[in-house]
Task: inverse folding
């Protein structure tokens, strides 16, 4: 007796009243909209037209909202973050890319010559190296991090873009090497700082905290970076608000030029030093 082939059931899309649904959730409406658009891979402008969700999509969205209510970072839930025009895959074990770090990429790209060598120190998700590699394929990029979990994400994001990835503490993986530019978004948060619950306890402490004043890693980087810079090479590093004066004092003995750049909120954000 021949078997009757099974026919796959369909999951038709139905109209979705996203405004009413967003207002009914127990998380902020801007977060429900973010999750909805990420689920559907749509830009915000798509909300001007009717939306249609399948039953599977509706259930998945409800699961995402439940995870957010339990405190999971939005980007861990969706599995990706937007950064400098790139889509960066993220999850537990790596720092979520922030818009402020895009200023570091802008500063690094400014004045970067063809054939230059660039080191992305403490690369995390690899977002900085990825953004630079896509805009300057003529630059040789090396990315390092001491976290095996973070490098799992970095290798996924950097696959196929020609970036060399090494594991190790700060400059240890590139001993004896020199670069035209070193980029770094180091841990710079004070250990006692009060952070949102979806940051402290979710994102890795090792990527956030750096001693009582937030400067433990920066002290090492400022002191060790010149030995890994070619003449005229630059260190471009993200810093925290209020750290500019202290970092400037630390850096002056090691660099011929030192500058602190502010972000669009007028907060100290980027250190730039030239060897």
Result:
């Amino acid at each position: 007796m021949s078997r009757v082939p099974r026919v796959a059931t369909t999951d038709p899309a139905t109209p979705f009243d996203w405004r009413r649904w967003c207002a009914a959730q127990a998380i902020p409406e801007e977060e429900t909209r973010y999750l909805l658009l990420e689920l559907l891979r749509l830009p915000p402008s798509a909300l001007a037209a009717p939306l249609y969700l399948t039953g599977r999509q509706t259930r998945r969205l409800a699961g995402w909202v439940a995870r957010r209510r339990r405190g999971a970072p939005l980007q861990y839930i969706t599995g990706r973050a937007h950064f400098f025009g790139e889509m960066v895959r993220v999850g537990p074990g790596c720092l979520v890319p922030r818009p402020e770090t895009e200023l570091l990429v802008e500063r690094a790209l400014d004045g970067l010559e063809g054939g230059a060598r660039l080191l992305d120190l403490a690369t995390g998700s690899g977002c900085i190296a990825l953004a630079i590699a896509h805009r300057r394929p003529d630059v040789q990029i090396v990315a390092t991090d001491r976290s095996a979990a973070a490098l799992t994400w970095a290798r996924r994001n950097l696959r196929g873009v020609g970036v060399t990835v090494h594991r190790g503490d700060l400059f240890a993986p590139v001993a004896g090497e020199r670069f035209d530019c070193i980029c770094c978004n180091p841990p710079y948060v004070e250990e006692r700082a009060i952070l949102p619950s979806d940051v402290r306890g979710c994102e890795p402490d090792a990527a956030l905290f750096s001693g009582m004043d937030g400067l433990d890693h920066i002290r090492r980087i400022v002191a060790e970076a010149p030995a890994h810079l070619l003449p005229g090479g630059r260190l471009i590093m993200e810093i925290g608000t209020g750290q500019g004066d202290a970092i400037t004092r630390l850096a002056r003995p090691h660099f011929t030029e030192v500058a602190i750049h502010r972000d669009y909120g007028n907060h100290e954000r980027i250190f730039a030093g030239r060897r």
